[in-house]
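Materials and Methods. Structural model of Transcription termination factor MTERF4, chloroplastic. The 494-residue sequence of Transcription termination factor MTERF4, chloroplastic from Vigna radiata var. radiata was retrieved and submitted for structure prediction as follows.
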Amino acid sequence: MVTRRKLLNLLSALNVSDLLPHHANAINRFSKTPKTLRVYYGTQSSKLPEYEMPSVTWGVIQGRKEKLVSRVIIFDYLKGLGIIPDELHDLELPSTVDVMRERVEFLQKIGLTVDDINNYPLILGCSVRKNMIPVLGYLEKIGIGRPKLGEFVKNYPQVLHASVIVELAPVVKFLRGLDVEKDDIGYVLQKYPELLGFKLEGTMSTSVAYLVSIGVNPRDIGPMVTQYPYFLGMRVGTVIKPLIDYLVDLGLPKKVLARMLEKRAYILGYDLEETVKPNVECLISFGVRRECLASVIAQYPQILGLPLKAKLSTQQYFFSLKLKVDPEGFARVVENMPQVVSLNQHVIMKPVEFLLGRTVTVEDVARMVIKCPQLVASRVELMKNSYYFFKSEMGRPLKELVEFPEYFTYSLESRIKPRYQRLKSKGIRCSLNWMLNCSDQRFEERLQGHYIETESAGPRFCMGGKLELPGNDIMSDDEAESDDEVLYTRTVSL
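The predicted structure was written out as tokens:
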């Protein structure tokens, strides 16, 4: 105790300021700690802790006061340009206005406006040399032209925060692995730039795996992505699978559904609750039979996404007014050719006027259209040639055309003329149905007289089954279907 008291007396007698003039003065300016403690700190270092271990980043090298001052100056600069910096308070900003000016001018140079920057002000946190130039250079390398880079950044400004090696390049590699052509990568990303932010093991992989599981050819995934890349961002459990299950429940086989999706991937984008289900109910309300819904969708998949009620109402009224087709007949027309809901009325009237000009009555035209709706989409020039051959060369009564309007849907040069000449050379007279509604092989068998076949209305459709042709029970062995072939009942118009 005596020794300690002596030491304290000695220290109190000494003038510390004389011993440590520089250190003490510095500490007196910046510290309010007691005198004894100031001596302790002063002996450890000549600098404040803030300056002891300077960071390699410019943001920390600045003192607190300097940072606040520079932030105020930068905010004033941005406000002067019309940029609202409210969202930048928690963002690391440059130390000088010159650096921020460089960023703003670079963004404006590639095509961004002040409004674009205000839509995503966090873009100002990206360094020109560390972020913008490497990312934009990579985007240009994979096929996004320099004039389009600005538009790309407008649509997806978050891309400038991404790492080329860690985030962007793996997504491009994944798309190439799906058989997306190299030249199409830029096109795909411009349509759906958010792809660059997806994780490979997440939604994209599961979407592709599910589509392949229902029968989509893996080699067709690439063209599907090119046509409609948005399905890569759709969740299987909540979006894709419910739509597929609903269509299968309507009677569409998965094989047919897979072929539809391969050609028209955008069907996956139709909202099930808001669009698909209401359109199906609309078809039923207009008289389309429930068992025919699968056939209607298979022939014209786009019908699921149309503003259907308005189109059906318009076309039904037009058919009733101009063609004298009643609502029930119009429903049969839709079942046999659903594309009629989108067919221009001027196009419809041309073949109708042609038939009316050939002394076919309005009632007969209505019957012909109900039986063969493809008439209303036929080219009048081809109809004229077929009609003149029918009248001049074949010399048949007009009644046969009314009974078999499908005559106008066959090629004059490749089917009608050759078969008529064969029949004429053999002195055989038959109906138009018997002559035209069969394959070339079946026609040859008919000419040889290997069997006698009664006429029928043609192929019969049962969704998911096989095509039941007239005379199946006496089909030749050469025409028998192999076990691994599945012949669906109607060719899907894709």
